[in-house]
Write a structure and sequence with these properties.
globular, binds 5-S-methyl-1-O-phosphono-5-thio-D-ribulose, 7-stranded mixed β-sheet, 4-stranded mixed β-sheet
Amino acid sequence: MQVELENIQPIIWRDDGLELLDQRLLPKEEKYIHLQDVKSVANAITDMVVRGAPAIGITAAYGVVLAARHRYQESIANWKKSIQDDLDILLDSRPTAINLFWAINRMKKVIEVLQDDPLVPLLNEAMAIHQKDILDNKSMGELGATFISSGSGVLTHCNAGALATGGYGTALGVIRSAWHHNKLRKIYADETRPWLQGARLTAWELLHDDIPVTLVAEGAVSALMSSGEVQWFVVGSDRIAANGDVANKIGTLAGAIQAKYHGVKVMVVAPTSTIDMAVASGTEIPIEHRGSDELLGLSGQLVAAAGCEGWNPVFDITPASLIDVIVTEKGVIESPNSVKIANLMHS
Ligand code: MRU
């Protein structure tokens, strides 16, 4: 099976391994790194070579393929047992995005029923996950765009685009679709400190597709919203709890509170693989904290006063009550709550 080619391809499977566009280097450099073993894949996820919930899941699925190839060559009799350590390494690579656990679980189910050489069936499964993600993003893009009136301004946070998924994007998928339908007057991206996913990645990817974008500092969001320039705050998600609470990039909660205050609508765009029915509410979602060096410095240079400490949670929880609409590939939920989420998941 071939994965349908997209304009921006963060993840490419080659016969001898996995290629990842190194997102730490964008927008200065467009460079792929080539990975042939599961540990390098797990490190690439931890170190943010690849990031964004669906992209992390897809990468991990290909990581399982590399692990199986190696373990099967090592021992035909024992590979199913020895691969468990590799799955654990992948599972430990980042804690918040549920798509990682979801994708590995899908690969595990294939492993359980395999009798012979695992390479082809596992590769087919990883490619199916990858391809379905792109198709789902396109349908979510169209669905989400129907909520946006002509002449609207939108603000997005972090990067929930082609770079964060198999291709096309979730929040940026909606923005792409709305743009192609000539509905958008203006697109704003906030910087998204400390990793600057907005400034480096969202701005790069929209401009790459000739879609104009205006960058704002996160401190300018209230001023922007109060000016009447934006009607929608559109974001992705790393995990959605069973009651509709949304974990996403740190700063999403602030953006949603500001949106509520200024009468701007909040749209969360995510595939159902991001919904975790095992967590009742956002308080149960594990929040990743990263090293304070990421906060205190910029491009490897210390910018904060030497000796200053840093607190660096990289996700926050936006309560369902602040969200106007959740867009998934299975349909849309307005004013999300537990009953509506359960109905969607069982539809
Ligand atoms: O730390 P990151 O860059 O992996 O965080 C990414 C986000 O928070 C995205 O908004 C989220 O994963 C949705 S991506 C379609």
